[in-house]
Each structure stands twice: as C-alpha cells, then as structure tokens.
Amino acid sequence: MSFSQSLSHCQFYYVDKFIIIASGNEIVLYSYHIDNIKSDLKRQITNSKYKQIKTIKMSEFQNISAFSAVNSFYSYIGLCCGSNKSIAVIDFNVGSVITQKSNTHERCIHTIEQFTEPNNGSSSDHQYNLFLTSAASDCIKLWDLRTREFST
C-alpha cells in the first residue's frame, strides 16, 4: 500500500471483514486475510494478504477531514466529511455518494461519530440513523439520516 497524500482515517468495517482508509480525497476499501499458521517450521512463510476492492473519489473535497462507518453490524453506509464543510453519505455496496449536504458547519468538520451499540444490547433501530459532527470553534450538531437530505 502506498498513498500519495497523508492518511486521515483508517478503520475496520463490516464486522472486521474490510479495512477502510481515507487519504486525500479518496476512500479506499481493502479486503484482507491474516494467516494464522502455528507451526514453527512455517511461521517464516506468511500467506497473509490484502486486496484493494474499491476506491471512491470525493471530487468535491480537497481532503477528507473525518470519516465514520459502523463496524459492529452489517451496514453498507459510510459518512464522510470534507474540507469544504460538507457531509456525504456513501453506499459501499454501490460505491458512490447517495446524498450530500453542503455548508454544514462554519469551519471544517474534524469529528464525526455514529451510534455504537452499548454492551447490554438495549438500543432501538432508529438510533443507528443518528450521528454527531463537530468543528473547531463551532457547536456539536446531531443529524438524522431518515429525513430528506438529513437535517439537524
């Protein structure tokens, strides 16, 4: 793996089946396999590998400033914030942006967080449609994906 620009985000995705890396204005999806050979004779030979599955170029963004995708259950949705103060909703099944909202904060968004299920499992389905964003010297905003063009 080599990237021409610095990495802004890296995480496991789709219940640890993939790795997502954000670099510059691109999101790259990788599959991977880690070889777990326990033999002392074969441990020098690794069969671990990775493969680039998909690259999504965010042409409206100069850089990706924040990214989030749920890893605790099977979801095709990812959320991406750009240097132009926009939020994009990405469908990894299709490999493109579903919807985008511009000028969401006064400054560039530096944090985006989606709901993660608590350990006791006491959550409702509608909570997975909510996410938070924040920007330096700006407020924290709560968003709902169920509304048309999602709103605060």
UniProtKB/TrEMBL annotation:
This is WD repeat-containing protein 27. PANTHER family: WD REPEAT-CONTAINING PROTEIN 27. It comes from the Eukaryota. InterPro entries: WD40/YVTN_repeat-like_dom_sf, WD40_repeat_dom_sf, WDR27. SUPFAM superfamilies: WD40 repeat-like.
